[in-house]
Amino acid sequence: MLLTIGQVLSPWGSGSPKEPLPTSTEQLSPEHNALPQPAHEAPLPPATINEDGDDLEDDIRRRDAKYYPETRQPSAQIDRMDAEQSQSSQESKAAVRRLEDELTKYKTHIKQQEIQLSDRDAVIRELQSNLAQIQDKHQKLEAIFVARQKYALQSMVANNGYIPKEDQSIRDELSNLTESIRSWAKKNCFISFADLEEVPKTEKDMVIHQLTGYCSQPDWNSTMREISIPQNKVPMVLLHALLAKDLFEQIFTDPFFAFPKIDGDHTTSTEGCFQRIYRIMIQADEQKAHTWRSLTLQNLSVTRHPNTETFLQNMTKQLVRGLVTRFLTSSARTLLRKVENPEAGDRRAQELQSLYDGAAQLALSLWTQRAFMTCRSLEELPPFTVSNPVMRAHRLHHLDEDDTRLDGKRILLCVQPAVLAFGSENAEHYNQHKIWSPAVVVVREK
């Protein structure tokens, strides 16, 4: 058996194979081997030796020592490769994590873009819907415009060139007139209520007396006790009421206001003659009477020569100059602030004349309509109701549209009358009315 081992190991030996040695250098007697051995001691195995008689383990150690460097080099390479593989694995994992993070970011970005696209699509759909509505509305308005244009042309042909005004246009013009009156009063009245303390009571009472039909109180003191607006605003409000009363009573209640006196007779005027004829015609045939009034004023408002004034334009200018002079010398002067010099007084008069002239031209244009115009002041107005379209509280009351705290209260002052129109442009339905301008009122809050 040992020979076999030696033969197997012979390639690592340095010499040729030797003869096998005996198992032991001395022979034991059979008697010695037959002696009983201690129970705890096992027989020792024979020593392992090679063919040269050397210990096999030493041979193996020598062999290992010889080939250790050769076996260590692959091990180092393996360790280096393991380290490189580990580093490469870590780098790969880091790269994977970075890619996963980037992928997450891309997914988030894509999700945000999808949301933005969805929102944009919603906006586009809404805009398309709005565009469709606008186009539909435009088509309807265009159809209305064409119909009204056709109606206007038909009316112009039927009425010898006359084109009636739209109700909304009339309302806008009257609203502008209201603002012009308020602005002039604000600019020219006393700034402070204390400025009126030096004015004699009789003069202040004349102010209230001039507002008869517009103010519910008989004198200055009783009016001041009842009025609830800030005191420093009282001069402006009263001056507005005085100016509005004069304008509307002189111009907007009489279609023939600009007609002159009959020559040589200062007691009778063409205005009075036309008014009497008009009233008689209304009793006979209301429709024909209003048509006659409209046509008469239309004919007197045109001229064949473009550079010349019409009859009514010339008469209106003369009337306006007289109305302005009379107003500035009336009790209204009690509320006017003092002017610094004559030039300032002239500018004030000129501004007032421009206001009167504009109001007169507006009134003439309204009197040429087939509708019949009337004004309603304090005596024709019921107790205040915020929902009543014929009146609105003065802005100094700070009353909202749905504020009913003043409902049922009596009206103290009509700052500006309501303007109502009866009938249509076809000279029909004179039992029906529409509101061209609501009354502006100061209400008793006490």
UniProtKB/TrEMBL annotation:
Residues 96-144 form a coiled coil. Residues 59-69 have a biased composition (Basic and acidic residues). The keyword Coiled coil applies. The keyword Coiled coil applies. Keywords: Coiled coil. Residues 1-94 are annotated as: Disordered. It comes from the Eukaryota. This is Uncharacterized protein.
